[in-house]
Amino acid sequence: MSCVSETAAHFFSGEDMEKILRQGFAELGIEAPDRAADELRVYFEELEEKNRVMNLTAISGEEAVARLHFLDCAAMLRHLDLRDKRVIDVGTGAGFPGMVLKILVPSAELTLLDSLNKRVDFLSGVCLRLGLTGVDCVHARAEEAAAELGGGFDVAVSRAVARLNVLCELCLPFLKVGGVFAAMKGPDCSEELTEAGNAIKLLGGRVRDTVSYTVPGTDIVHSLVLIEKIKPTHPKYPRRWAQIKKQPL
């Protein structure tokens, strides 16, 4: 699921996607690969086609998807260096932010993790059509996948709408010490940060920074919470989902 306000999509109409992306990348100070706009166009086409038969996102149309999905995700790259890094997108859904980050930083080694097999199959098909390499699409729940994949990633990202204390338990175990968890949040996440303080400490993390940004071409403000892994996570975490939900850290 997305942290964007999906109802905002109806305010957009008709502007060319490639132009929007070029202008947005320039505004964000991102040097996108030459093929990035073409690949994002293909991704958009696949998303629109699949969305007719499967509920991937409530956002549709070139301008809305370009701004509220692609440029929103791309803004993370102002604060994250993903070159040659192992990256996991936890609860990727329709592929946000992971697919966008991979297209913009091809050298990143990406794992897309989701609990719904239909979404994973969709993403596998998009990767195949784009000829992307270094992408692993994994069908599993985060709290179960951590047993096998935990401790192996430089960066974990999530655009899910779960509270930050829950996201930390699902995401921090995947990181190696020195890695960073980047959580995309709404305009004001101060309450969630306070609420998650205990979880961050218990799981071996430390808040490195919280930054706000405006999605190019809109007045929508989002936040990016950056949490550094400073010590190993105890192997008892993450707990089973029923426990996480019933008694958050």
Description:
This protein is of the alpha/beta class and 249 residues long. Helix content is 39%, strand content 21%. It is built from 10 helices and 7 strands. Strands 3-2-1-4-5-7-6 form a 7-stranded mixed β-sheet, sandwiched between helices.
The value of Rg in angstroms is 17 Å
- Count of strand segments: 7
Order of helices and strands: HHHEHEHEHEHEHHEEH
What composes the largest sheet?
A: 7 strands, mixed
What is the count of helical runs? 10
Give the topology, please.
Elements: H1 17-28, H2 36-51, H3 62-74, E1 86-90, H4 98-104, E2 109-114, H5 117-130, E3 135-139, H6 142-149, E4 153-158, H7 164-171, E5 175-185, H8 190-195, H9 197-202, E6 205-214, E7 221-229, H10 241-246
Helix pairs in contact: 1-3, 2-5
